[in-house]
Structure formats: structure tokens, C-alpha cells
Amino acid sequence: MTVLNIAMVGSDELAREIAKPTDQRDVHTYVHKEYQDEIAKIISIIRPVKYPERLRPLLNSISAARVGIIEINVLDATLGETLVAFASSSIKLGIVVVNPPNGEWVDQDMAEKMFQQAGLTQWQFMGRDGVEIRNQLYKLMEQIEQELIQSAASPLVVSIDQHFNVKGIGLVAIGYVQSGTLEVHDELHILPAKTGGSTKSLQVMDDDVKLAQSGDRVGIAIRGAKDDSLSNGTIIVKPAIDDKKTNTQIPLSVIEHNLSKLHVTASPFQKRVLKEGDVIHISTDLQFTVGRIKSVDGNCLVVEWESPVYIRRENPNPAIIAQLDSNPRIIGSADLVTMD
């Protein structure tokens, strides 16, 4: 089974023309499954319904996605911020649908210039036809298939955004497998709680499975962990290995950051200049953490985080940096080096 997650800023009506609605929370999801050579190929649309009022749902959607969809009703500041969000992430491919309300008009030439200015040069403008958009999404899946395979072969990182207790099952964590694979009976390491557990059972698309891999939205029944070890933004990885008998040493797949040096790439639409003492937020792998700038040297910042940030050891996605009182709220992207 191959899953392509798509972050969408657009209407429920358009999303339903492309895929079937499944989960309706503050982030709505829509799923379409096809079989190619007896292998399930799934597109999963993640739509942040509380954006633009709240920024985090948009950034969480982008954290889990590899492709984007933007439906344009009007050229406004919200569209500009949306472009900044996608451009500041690792999402280089996407689909644009110009769909003004009845009797109104959107200048598509101007919209295309905005995408070029934001650096989203590989996004494709299409008509409002759900079937054609769906077919194009499958073409994009083929285009990045090797990337998806490599992600599944990487060390495990699971980002959690829900958790609850189920009678007869116990503690269940819901989230996205950002990289790697997870199997039933695997030992787990839960961060930032730094507690252990093991995988009792797994569910993907409401089906019991023995294995979940990169791209899957997974439900993990966890044995041996307490409810207070989980929160929105928890990261689950496999435990580190330090076996002196076999001389085997495998570190955690993420690096803990409490104090970081950030190399920031600012958005071309962002005019604010960050300074010492400013408060910023970081978004990466569904984590949304606040920090305070300790020093500034050009585009390099030293930031102390209010709570730990966990960055993938291998092939980390660019972290998105935001300031909630900025306009747009997103500053740009950053690469992090721990200074702990």
C-alpha cells in the first residue's frame, strides 16, 4: 500500500469531488483508493478547516503532506500567507484551482506571478474537475514514488496528534508515520516523556494491520505506557541500541533541541526583521513549539525553546518559523543545529 498525503487549502465541496470524506475534526481528511497491479494506491487529502483563524492546523497539514492543493477564490493576504507556508516547507509539487465566487473574477495571470514569486514554480494550474485533479494526483504519486520508498526505508518517526483510552484495548495514539516502518510488537520510545512501551496492535484506514509505513495515518495501541506520556506533538521512535557485546550502537532517530542555532531562509513576502528577545514558533513533524531568540547574527539565530524540539537525524524536513503577530505570520524556513 502506498499513500500520498496532500495538504489542501480550499473548499469542502472541491475536496469531496476528489475523494471521500472520512475524519471530520479541526482538520478534515478525504481518502480515495485505487488498485494498480494489485497494490493499493491511496490519496489522502488533509484540509485545515480552522485556517486562517488558527495557523497550527495549516502547518500540521503541511507537516504530514508531500503535495499541495490550493483553491483560489480571491487574491488576498490569506492566499499570500498560504503560499509562504507551502514555499517554506519541502512541498514543491501541487495543484492550483482558480474558482472565484459567482459573478466575481480572479486574475489568473496575477495568481501565477504570485506562485512564481513564492518559489512554487512546479505547481500546476487546473480546472475545477475533481476526476482530472485526482488523476493528476496519481501522476504526482508516480513522480515521487522513489522518494516515498526511501522515506519508508528510513528510521522510524511517528508524529502524534490525538490520544485516548479505549475500553478493552487501552491507550491508543493517533498520528502520521513521517518516516520508517512500524510493526506489531515493536518496542517504542516516547518523547518528550522519555518513557517506553510496545506496539500492541496497529490500525490504518480502520483496518487492523501488522505493519504501518511512511505516509500512513496510524492508530497505535500502546502496551506499557501511561496516558500522561502522550500529548499533541508527541514523537514516537524506536529505542536507541547500545549493545557492547555485539558492538552495536544505533542512536535515536531524532535529536533533542533545547537550544538551537537556526539558519533562516526568510520568505520573499516577509518584511519583519527578527531581533534578540523576540518570541517565535517552530513547526516540524506536527510539533508546534515556542522559543525566545537569544542572539541574532545576520540570518543565524540562537533560540532557546520552551519545550524540547525533536529534529530527524536523517533527511529532516525544513522547519517552518512563525511569529503569530507578523503579517504574514510565517517568517520562512530554517535548518537547525543543536547547541545543547
Give a topology summary.
Elements: E1 2-9, H1 12-18, E2 20-24, E3 27-36, E4 39-48, H2 56-64, E5 67-72, H3 77-87, E6 94-98, H4 108-118, E7 124-126, H5 130-143, H6 145-152, E8 157-166, E9 170-179, E10 181-183, E11 187-191, E12 195-204, E13 207-209, E14 211-213, E15 217-223, E16 235-237, E17 241-243, E18 248-250, E19 254-266, E20 279-284, E21 287-297, E22 300-312, E23 319-322, E24 330-338
Parallel strand pairs: 1-4, 1-5, 5-6, 6-7
Antiparallel strand pairs: 2-3, 3-4, 8-9, 8-16, 9-15, 10-14, 11-12, 11-16, 12-13, 12-15, 17-18, 19-22, 19-24, 20-21, 20-23, 21-22, 23-24
Written description of the protein model:
By secondary structure, this protein is of the alpha+beta class. The chain folds into three domains: 2-151, Rossmann fold (3-Layer(aba) Sandwich), CATH 3.40.50; 155-250, Translation factors (Elongation Factor Tu (Ef-tu), domain 3); 254-338, Elongation Factor Tu (Ef-tu), domain 3 (Beta Barrel), CATH 2.40.30. The chain contains six helices and 24 strands. A seven-stranded mixed beta sheet has the order 2-3-4-1-5-6-7, sandwiched between helices. A six-stranded antiparallel beta barrel has the order 8-9-15-12-11-16. Helix 1 (12-18) packs across helix 5 (130-143). The longest helix is centred in the middle third of the chain and has 14 residues, at 130-143. It starts with a strand and ends with a strand. The mean pLDDT is 95.
